[in-house]
Amino acid sequence: DSGVTQTPKHLITATGQRVTLRCSPRSGDLSVYWYQQSLDQGLQFLIQYYNGEERAKGNILERFSAQQFPDLHSELNLSSLELGDSALYFCASSFDSNTEAFFGQGTRLTVV
Amino acid sequence: ELKVEQNPLFLSMQEGKNYTIYCNYSTTSDRLYWYRQDPGKSLESLFVLLSNGAVKQEGRLMASLDTKARLSTLHITAAVHDLSATYFCAVAGYGNQFYFGTGTSLTVIP
Question: Whole-angstrom Cα distance, residue B69 to residue B26?
Answer without folding.
Answer: 10
